[in-house]
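Residues determine shape. We examine one folded chain.
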Amino acid sequence: MDLNDPLSSSGWVPLRLPVPGRSVDFITGEDPYLSAAQISNLFTVTAWSYERIWRHQSLAILTRGRLTVREELNRLKTFAGQVSPRVVVDLGCSTGLYGRTVGQHLSGTQVWFLDYSLPMLRQAARLNGPVPRFHYIRQYAEQPAFLPESVDLVICGGSLNEFADPDLVLRQVYRMLSPGGSVFFMGIQTAESPAGRAIQTALSWSGLSFLPKDQIIRHFTSNGLSVTRYDQSGPVFLLTAHR
């Protein structure tokens, strides 16, 4: 297998982002049904404000300051350093915070940023800068076009709550992971307080889902991924697993 090209060789057109790495587009037809939460990611203002405002503020509010973005990213860097991946996929990357963090921390790593939102990928490319090891793929997380066993680490910062079918996504994660490959996911589980649960129920109309811890772990284990760590700060969780 050519590690420089973990993608399927067909079904894509050039994305034409101004980057030195590859940029390809697998979404060449009409978009399938998107939830309100997913549609919001198609707006340029959402991409512009994601890291500047939303990412830091939301984590501080959800965890009441018990988990900062800096600490979250330090845990990601520590984990990535332990597994020493050659090929990384930032699944549902938004503006590329997770992939950029790993790519800057591990100088020899090839990072693929995958998202269905073109504004998010454009913003990721701007924030990442001209790094030849960084590549961009416009595609849905349910249909990642990576060859079987071609990826060493899959990272996902918050998008799990937006996936309509987590099992389908995690089956794809298992398929593209190399034997012994790893995952690092951040997400939001069911809130413990009545007020938190009420807010999550109100948000469910948008397509967001918030599951209890045992159900989240079951999604991973039932799709061949052995959960090795599950840390909680309020409703926010950080999960690592291996194939």
Notes: The chain has a mean pLDDT of 92. The two ends are 19 Å apart (CA to CA). Residues 35-242 form a domain with the Rossmann fold fold (CATH 3.40.50.150).
